[in-house]
Amino acid sequence: MIGEINPILRRRKLATELRRLREDLGFNGVQVSQALHWSTSKLSRLETGQVAPSAKDVARLLRHYEAAGDEAGLLLELAGNHAPKGWWESYSDVLAEVVLEYIGLEDGATSIRAWNNNVLPGLLQTRAYATEMAMLYRSVELAPPTVIERRTRARMRRQQLLMNERLSYTAVVEEAALRRRFGGADAALMHEQLRHLLKLSDQPNITIRMLLLEQPHPIDLSSFVHLGFPSMPLLGPISGDVVYTEDYPALELIEAEERVYRYSVFFDLLCDAALDEEASRDRIASLAGL
């Protein structure tokens, strides 16, 4: 289990557990920092996941908290230096830091629920569609062709996680996103994209549902992605649920429990209003001329 957890989720889980251990003992950050001869900023960075703690630092904290047994062993294993870097880190020159963080979270999720009202979800896009979308930002950002290509390549790489049958992926897509053409996108590009959606929907772990324009809309809400994560023995969920919103140029990871829960309710409302899976497939096939 530990070996399957990527570096971003390891860092986040360690931060959560180290903070919990301190709080359970009633210590504050100043007390712990003084006892270990650390700066308070160092402890703060460890407990907020800003940096990945070394196994040595984690061991010192565990001794100070008198933590032992299987739980301590798991935390030390999480802090091990044997975890390779995430593949997405090689794209740090063309992707914003919040996007890299999101990709790492997405990579470790076991549940992804996406609502898209204007464009198709990134995980479902063909290369041609993704390239067309990336080129649109040229009007607001001076992105040379090499940057566009690398961003598109990163998006295609992300899609490999859909082959993981342990992942449950559900997308609710507004009909407008299936009809709309962007930039130089032509009918052939969109037909290819629609056929791609039909092919993906054959996979048992992928559900694609359409919200018709003619249907009453349950809520006025921009696109978002809701991520859920697996649990570890003894330590519980690797991460709390996270919501990612992307309304360029504002990109946000939402982790506050109450806000995340609201998005979960919103998604349920959208699912209730959308066509079921079979009817959605029929509509997509009709739009594709099949």
What structural category arises from helix and sheet content? Answer: alpha/beta
- Strand line-up in the sheet with most strands: 3-2-1-4-7-8
If you average the pLDDT, what whole number results? 91
**How many strands in all?**
8
DSSP helix count? 12
**Biggest sheet descriptor:** 6 strands, mixed
Strand portion: 5-15%
Helix-strand string: HHHHHHEHHEHHEEEEEEHH
Q: What would the principal axes of the Cα set say about the shape?
A: elongated
Distance between the termini: 43 Å
Bin the helical content. Answer: 40-55%
Low-confidence stretches: none
Quaternary structure annotation: single chain
CATH topology of the largest domain: Endonuclease, Chain A
CATH class of the largest domain: Alpha Beta
Rg:
22 Å
Structure description:
- It comes from Nonomuraea solani.
- The protein has 290 residues and is of the alpha/beta class.
- The protein has 2 domains: 2-78, Orthogonal Bundle (434 Repressor (Amino-terminal Domain)); 90-287, 2-Layer Sandwich (Endonuclease, Chain A), CATH 3.30.870.
- It contains 12 helices and 8 strands.
- The chain has a 6-stranded mixed β-sheet with strand order 3-2-1-4-7-8, sandwiched between helices.
- A hairpin with a 3-residue loop joins strand 5 and strand 6.
- The protein is elongated.
